[in-house]
Specification:
Layout: E1 2-9, E2 25-31, E3 36-42, E4 48-54, E5 62-63, E6 68-72, E7 77-83, E8 90-96, E9 107-109, E10 119-121, E11 138-141, E12 147-149, E13 154-160, E14 166-167, H1 170-173, E15 178-183, E16 189-200, E17 207-208, E18 213-217, E19 221-222, E20 227-235, E21 240-242, E22 246-249, E23 252-254
Parallel strand pairs: 9-22, 14-19
Antiparallel strand pairs: 1-2, 2-3, 3-7, 4-6, 4-8, 5-7, 10-11, 11-20, 12-18, 13-15, 13-17, 15-16, 16-18, 16-20, 20-21, 22-23
């Protein structure tokens, strides 16, 4: 048997280079003599969904036919398709989270070790909260180095801690935010973003409790000032969607306004 690595999808997560986010998944092609097997290897400590596509040219004969989807468990490996053509250019796309997540109504805890709050941007903010992934995100203004706390119990699924700078150059800065993604028991995921350089204090696969210190806030990535970007997301079939959430803040229940319709 001969195996070799094929295309990688670079979507987000911990980075081997200080300038480039690493992959969520790895595509491995195994030569079986009479054909080739395309396997997806999950690099995260939580489930992902993948789709295998042809990267240009006609689709080769495959079982199942391309594009082919699969879900891959944490750190797992799944056969996505058997492909007849040895020279086909294949691309593996991946999204964190299981597409069958069942959302529970949970009150989230305050994610900062502060006695006060200031919201820079809430649900539907036009600056950077207009897309599906961030429509229900909230940006809490806070000085660099403020302790960040887990708002809900879960497992550290993915993190990035190696970036040092931030700014408003969208092409350069969008993928350079330090963050922690925590997987909850209902399949939803909370993201704590724009953390300080080396500002993560947990490890992938670690279970954290509600209120546990997990990192330090910062100003990395696409950011105009120090803050914590907090969002709850679910995978809805190869796309991340942000979810409305309830939260108890320093002064009581926080009430966010539903994001305005884009219609």
């Amino acid at each position: 048997m001969r195996a070799f690595a094929a295309c990688l999808l670079l979507l987000a997560t911990a980075s081997a280079s200080p300038q480039t986010p690493a992959a969520l998944a790895r595509l491995v092609i195994e030569d079986r003599g009479a054909g080739h097997e395309a396997w997806a290897e999950n690099l995260l400590a939580g489930p992902i969904e993948v789709v295998l596509r042809v990267d240009g040219g006609p689709a080769p004969a495959a079982r199942p036919a391309l594009p082919a989807r699969a879900t891959v468990p944490a750190r797992g490996r799944v056969l996505v398709a058997r492909v007849a053509a040895a020279d086909a250019r294949l691309r593996l796309e991946a999204v964190p989270g299981h597409p069958a997540a069942q959302v529970r109504d949970i009150e989230y805890a305050w994610p900062l070790a502060t006695a006060s709050l200031r919201i820079e941007q809430a649900w539907g903010g036009r600056f950077s909260h207009a897309d599906d992934e961030n429509r229900h995100a909230v940006d809490f203004a806070t000085p660099v180095g403020t302790p960040v706390l887990a708002a809900r119990e879960g497992v550290v699924m993915q993190l990035e801690g190696g970036f040092a700078e931030g700014g408003l150059d969208r092409p350069e800065d969008m993928a350079r935010a330090n963050f922690i993604r925590i997987l909850h028991d209902d399949g939803t995921m909370a993201v704590y973003a724009h953390l300080a350089a080396d500002g993560t204090e947990v490890r992938p696969g670690e279970r954290v409790r509600r209120g546990q210190r997990i990192g330090r806030s910062g100003n990395t990535g696409y950011s105009g000032g120090p803050h914590l970007h907090f969002v709850v997301q679910a995978n809805r079939g190869m796309r991340l969607v942000s979810l409305p959430f309830r939260m108890f803040g320093p002064g009581g229940i926080l009430r966010f306004t539903e994001a305005a319709s884009s219609d």
